[in-house]
Amino acid sequence: MANDTSGNGSASSTRRRGFLKKAGLLGTVGLAGCLGGGDGGSGDGDSGGDSGGSDGDSAGGDSGGEETTSGGDGGGEETLVMGTASEVSANFAMMSGLGGVVNENTDEVYLDVRPSASMAANIGRMARDEIDIGLIESTTAHDVNEGNEPFGDVAVDLRQIVHGSTSDWFLFAEDDQYSTIDDIGPDTYVAPGPSGSRVTDMVRRVLELAGVEYQERTTGYGDMGAAVAEGRIDVGLGAFTNVQVGTVTPGWVQEIKGTVDARLLGLPAELQSGINEEGWGNSFEFEVDPEGWAHVPDTPRSMSQVTWLYGTAETSTDAVYNVLETMYENRDSMGDYHELLSFYTNDDHWTREPHPGFSLHQGTQDFLDEYDLN
């Protein structure tokens, strides 16, 4: 458990109602940050970011909020403090919904869901015992596993708990001279994402792997369509979510379709293979509904980041098990708390695309064994 810095004497039911009211979850399906369309970008592999600025990628960043609190209110309830992503992001909204699912349906464990400056910052927060569990995306997981800076000296034994979501990124342009990533040239202004985002870092790596020369202009997600329409950039970035099991299109991407005649750029098959071999990203072939797009490649391929919820070897086995069991027993109603949680009705979603090099948490292994989900 994270360190207990303040007691909690209120009743569990009161806390849960207060938590849901504060998070805006009562009676809400699909929170802002998933399908909303603001004018900024939050990064973190977060296809639903809809406002604010960069999320940063520092391993030592903090949440910028209140002090972390742990500890239940008696009766054997355990508290897990969860670090997520920036508070304007879909990942924070999704995990807040998950907190609602768990906290409304069990007295065994309480999820205290907190924003983080970035998912990358959750590494340092777990190492410092500020949080018990945290979201991590695949680019950061790869760098931690490889010991790449700034994660070379991370002293924490990370364990994977459950798959979160998969954000499937693509490049787009309005000018019909661009049909594939190979059409980008030294004079092309490309927005790989907002400044400081791990998504931006991943897209840069893809462009470098492809041998593409370009001019970079970082741009917030919600500003991508306007930036292309106004000629500030030639190529922008968009995203879908969970295209392997059922596509969700964020509101800011819907705005792109309404702002410009957007052409999705193709990725060559050999580039897809190269991305998957490198390990810091994933690339999938997927289907795109062509309605609203000026051009769709014959075989669309994504640049994808996969999020997993992590704990450490010290995170309570019983608490992790109880979280997963409560989720699974209430999986049919999870979509009422956030649209992205609806994918947990698919048994394959729970363990989809694990990050290489990390073991499952013992609580997860016990849960998978009990429910025959291996």
UniProtKB/TrEMBL annotation:
InterPro entries: TRAP_TAXI (IPR011852). Residues 36-63 have a biased composition (Gly residues). Pfam families: NMT1_3. It comes from the Archaea. Residues 36-79 are annotated as: Disordered. This is TAXI family TRAP transporter solute-binding subunit. It comes from Halobellus rarus.
